[in-house]
């Protein structure tokens, strides 16, 4: 298991081996040179959106100009509620566009 620093969420974000395998299987370009891009998207995102389909999920966007001809890395993070809050990566993928909807936070 890998943990990433995420100041926006105020705690660590987990990447389990199972989720890492999922990303490698579905979007190998995300993990092509380790997980530095994931760390960047979570520690210094351009935007954070609430997932319109799941209120417990957030989408972290980070534009990476020298990756795949210029793309956003989208990292989907689920947060549990309750006495112990936990955050974990569900998936990550490249996207040319940021989806419609209002951002919860946007770089100023």
Question: Main attributes?
Answer:
108 residues; alpha+beta; 7-stranded mixed beta sheet; 8 strands
Summarize the helices and strands and which ones pair or pack.
Layout: E1 2-4, E2 13-15, H1 17-26, E3 32-35, H2 36-43, E4 47-51, E5 54-64, E6 71-79, E7 87-95, E8 103-106
Parallel strand pairs: 2-7
Antiparallel strand pairs: 1-2, 4-5, 4-8, 5-6, 6-7
Describe the structure.
With 108 residues, the chain is an alpha+beta fold. 17% of the residues lie in helices and 44% in strands. The chain contains two helices and eight strands, in the order ββαβαβββββ. The chain has helices at residues 17-26, 36-43, and strands spanning 2-4, 13-15, 32-35, 47-51, 54-64, 71-79, 87-95, 103-106. Strands 1-2-7-6-5-4-8 form a seven-stranded mixed β-sheet. A hairpin with a 2-residue loop joins β4 and β5. The mean pLDDT is 91.
């Amino acid at each position: 298991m890998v943990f990433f620093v995420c100041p926006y969420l105020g705690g660590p974000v987990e990447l389990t081996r199972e989720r890492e395998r999922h990303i490698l299987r579905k979007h190998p370009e995300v993990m092509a040179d380790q997980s530095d891009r994931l760390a960047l998207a979570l520690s210094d995102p351009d935007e954070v959106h609430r997932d319109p389909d799941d209120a417990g999920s957030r989408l972290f966007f980070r534009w990476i100009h020298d990756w795949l001809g210029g793309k956003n890395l989208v990292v989907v993070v689920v947060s549990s509620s309750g006495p112990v809050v936990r955050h974990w990566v569900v998936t990550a993928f490249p996207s040319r566009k940021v989806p419609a909807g209002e951002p919860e936070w946007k770089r100023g």
